[in-house]
Design brief:
By secondary structure, the chain is an alpha+beta fold. Helix content is about 45%, strand content about 15%. Strands 1-2-3-4-5 form a 5-stranded antiparallel beta sheet.
């Protein structure tokens, strides 16, 4: 509270001294009250600043329209990822995957042991939290060994700029902001509809080809047993020729 413009006149008369003392008391009281209000206002401002919400990523993935095969570089990376994975080529994967230490040749061979090919790849993209980054939902159809009917499927990936500026496929090592965007992308109506369509096509393929259904059932059963007992996979499944 600023009192520099206020003036207090002191009469020469003795009686005025009493009035002066009275005014000083009022002045002191007013100053104390003003200081208290200033501190209170400052505290409120600091509290408000402390409680300010954390900014959310700019990518509004819940409502953004999904783009199909709209980014050629993203499409190429995804196709190369499947190509190198099928071959068990961990060295080539190192060029397009930002966390290549997550992949080994042995893991690739085990994962794609019964997959002969990956066909009809389609990339559905949403904007990521950073510039030149994408949430990518990939539709594909697996060609299993010795089975004619293709098995539809879908996987989600994150593609972003690497240290050299080129796009890389990031497998596991994502920060909290990226995790949040990936989770929120699942709420996008286009993605929900797309996943439902893929699930329907998958079920139709199993109904159409009993051989495919028996094979998938065997894989699922073996995976469950392996998870429960930590034993190697069963060898009763068809092998690559």
């Amino acid at each position: 509270m600023d009192f520099k413009d206020k003036k207090i006149w002191f009469p020469v008369a003795i009686g005025a001294i009493v009035i002066c003392v009275f005014m000083l008391i009022i002045f002191a009281f007013s100053s104390k009250k003003g200081t208290k209000q200033s501190v209170s206002d400052k505290t409120k401002k600091e509290t408000t600043a402390t409680k300010a919400p954390t900014p959310t990523p700019t990518a509004n993935v819940e409502t953004t329209e999904v783009e199909k095969d709209a980014h050629e570089e993203v499409n190429n990376i995804v196709k190369q990822y499947f190509q190198y994975s099928l071959k068990g080529d961990a060295d080539s994967l190192d060029k397009i995957v930002s966390d290549a230490e997550q992949v080994t040749k042995e893991e690739l061979q085990r994962k794609y042991e019964y997959i002969e090919g990956v066909k009809n790849i389609e990339c559905y993209t949403l904007p990521g939290p950073d510039e030149n980054s994408y949430v990518v939902y990939v539709y594909y159809e697996y060609k299993f060994v010795n089975i004619d009917t293709l098995a539809p499927g879908m996987s989600r990936y994150y593609v972003c700029a690497g240290s050299d500026g080129s796009l890389k496929l990031l497998l596991n090592q994502v920060d909290d902001v990226v995790k949040d965007v990936l989770q929120r992308s699942e709420q996008n109506p286009n993605i929900i509809s797309l996943k439902a369509t893929v699930q329907k096509k998958y079920e139709e393929a199993l109904t159409k080809d009993t051989k495919l259904k028996e094979f998938v059932d065997t894989i699922n059963k073996t995976s469950q047993q392996a998870a429960a007992t930590a034993t190697p996979k069963a060898t009763a499944k068809p092998k690559k020729k």
